[in-house]
Amino acid sequence: MTADLSTTGPAALRRSPLAHLTEALRAATVTGPRAVALAEWPCAVMVNLRVDPASPAAVRIEKVLGAALPARCGRTASAGSGTTLWLGPDEWLVVAPPGAPARTAELAAALAGEPGSVVDVSANRTVLELRGPAARQVLEKGCPLDLHPRVFGRGQAVSTLVGPVPVILWQTGGDSYRLLPRSSFADHLARWLMDAMSEYALPEVD
């Protein structure tokens, strides 16, 4: 008889970095014309890739991913349930929804002994999703980037700061962003964002 590891194994012991703020995040939701909401995407799958993009190993990795590795800063590539984010000239982060297979064994096998690395870093970061008509304005309170659509748009992802916290900022829709902070900074970032959101619950001053 095989044990159900989802209820008895390591997965049952996982606790997201923001589990203690679930109700606070929900209560911080702002409705109306300046709506904005914040939620955690807990226990997302993340795999760090390092490989020479011009190598045969990179070609094999792309076949496993089902998409070409993004070639420059800000670019992402999606296939199936996963999206690959550019981190550097020879480094990427593959992000997939909670419960998706990490596929680290397949990706590691694709290296076939060539220089590179494949590491499951799912516990290293969490994912916060900020969405709504006021989402960009909230981010602009503490992000040094120009987030205007003419510069930063859907499908782009970069490393930056939001408030005092280093994050990967990924725009997934016209008014939807995902922020990937280190797990140890997640509480601070979530509280900063909730404070930044609170203004939009008040009547707009002409």
Give your account of this protein's structure.
With about 210 residues, this protein is α+β, with helices and mostly antiparallel strands. About 25% of the residues lie in helices and about 30% in strands. The chain is built from 7 helices and 10 strands. It has helices spanning about 5-10, 10-15, 20-25, 55-65, 105-110, 135-140, 185-200, and strands spanning about 35-40, 45-50, 75-80, 80-90, 90-95, 115-120, 125-130, 155-160, 165-175, 175-180. It has a 5-stranded antiparallel sheet with strand order 1-7-10-9-8. Strands 3-4-5-2-6 form a 5-stranded antiparallel sheet, covered by helices on one side. The radius of gyration is 18 Å and the shape is elongated. The model is unreliable at about 1-10 (pLDDT under 50).
